[in-house]
Write a structure and sequence with these properties.
The protein is 30% helix and 25% strand. It is α/β, with parallel strands linked by helices. A six-stranded mixed β-sheet has the order 5-6-7-3-8-9, with helices on both faces. A three-stranded antiparallel β-sheet has the order 2-1-4, with helices on one face. Strands 10-11 form a two-stranded antiparallel ribbon. β6 (141-145), α5 and β7 (173-177) form a beta-alpha-beta unit. α3 (101-107) packs across α4. The longest helix has 18 residues, at 153-170. The N and C termini lie far apart (41 Å).
Length: 259
Amino acid sequence: MPATALVQLDRVNLSFNDNKVLSDINLNLHANEIVTVIGPNGAGKSSLVSLIIGLQSPSQGSITRKKNLRIGYMPQKLAIDPQLPLSTRRFLSLCGNSSRLQHAIKRLSIECLLNTPVQKLSGGEMQRVLLARAIMQNPELLVLDEPAQGVDVTGQAELYHLLGELRHELGCGVLMVSHDLHIVMAQTDQVLCLNKHVCCHGAPESVSQHPEYLQLFGRQAAEDIAIYTHHHDHQHDIHGDVVEQQAASNHSHCTHNHS
């Protein structure tokens, strides 16, 4: 495994009975890097996440993780019994990491939600609570499965901006699944386009012009991305390597009342 890699997947395959879900997946995840996985429904995105965090084992190939790797996981959704008396404060305290609870609450600006039943949280509020729960692990790798599900477009942009900040604050790697490359590209470093196999992999600008990406998502998706390119604060060469970097000039204020 490369010295700086947190997780390495080498020719990983995953099958259920005779159904091949993932085929020949190679992927390295590094500290201080955001990798976004995109792909159509049924592409195997959530299965890939399950493999990386250790909920499933590959049918073939190998997965190597840094020793004692700390992973913070934010699930796509969480089903909670509507009759269960569970406040947001109690929900977070169940993680058991009380030493980081107050920091997570303050960093995600969810103080006003602590007495609210988790079943009453809006989509945007719930995502912030789940993210607070994930960073309580002081993760070296933050894994988010569709973190913006149920959040409006403005809330999504704010969430992804926040993830970019957390990446620098925690010094962690970030792996997230998303359907909207044009929203996340301002914050992501690498994109993996998945359709049971890796269709293409690289910097978001190059992936957005790749023939297999265009075949899956259409040219309109590439045109949508073009609208957002002015937000991207660095450029890449044809291999996806950063060749120019400048500090972001604007800081977005994040709120948590989007649904």
